[in-house]
Amino acid sequence: MVETMKIILLEYCTRITDEDTFLQVRLFLEKLEQHRPFTANGVFEVDLKVATSIFTNILTYVLVALQFEISDN
C-alpha cells in the first residue's frame, strides 16, 4: 500500500506547478520512506489487524462484565 501511494504521489509531483505544494508532497514522500512500524515494546508489530483484535477482545470483556452486573441487580 505504501509503495502504491508513493507511485501515485510521484506521478502527481510531475504535474504540480505550485512550488509550495511540490515541497509538501516531496516532504510527505520522504516521511513515507522513513516509515517505521509501530511495535509493542519491540515484541510484535501493531498493525490494523492486531489493533482490531485487541479492541474486539476488550469490548467483549466489557459487555460480559456488564451482563453480570445487570444480572446481580
Q: Low-confidence runs (pLDDT<50, min 5 residues)? A: none
Helix content: over 70%
The biggest beta sheet is recorded as: none
* Strand runs, count: 0
The structural class is mainly alpha
Question: Helical stretch count?
Answer: 3
- Overall average pLDDT: 82
Question: Into how many domains do the coordinates divide?
Answer: 2
Distance linking N and C termini: 50 Å
String of helices and strands? HHH
| Quaternary assembly | single chain
Instruction: Please state the CA-atom Rg, rounded to the nearest Å.
Output: 22 Å
> What percent strand?
under 5%
Label the overall shape.
elongated
Which features would summarize this protein structure in a list?
73 residues, mainly alpha, 2 domains, 0% strand, Gustatory receptor, cell membrane, membrane
Q: Could you characterize the architecture of this molecule?
A:
It is a multi-pass membrane protein. It is found in: Cell membrane. It holds the Pfam family 7tm_7. InterPro entries: 7TM_chemorcpt. Keywords: Cell membrane, Membrane, Transmembrane, Transmembrane helix. Helix 1 runs antiparallel to helix 2. This protein is mainly α. Helices cover 71% and strands 0% of the residues. It has helices spanning 2-13, 19-33, 48-72. It has two domains: 1-35, no CATH class; 38-73. It is elongated. It has three helices and no strands. The model has no long low-confidence stretch (mean pLDDT 82).
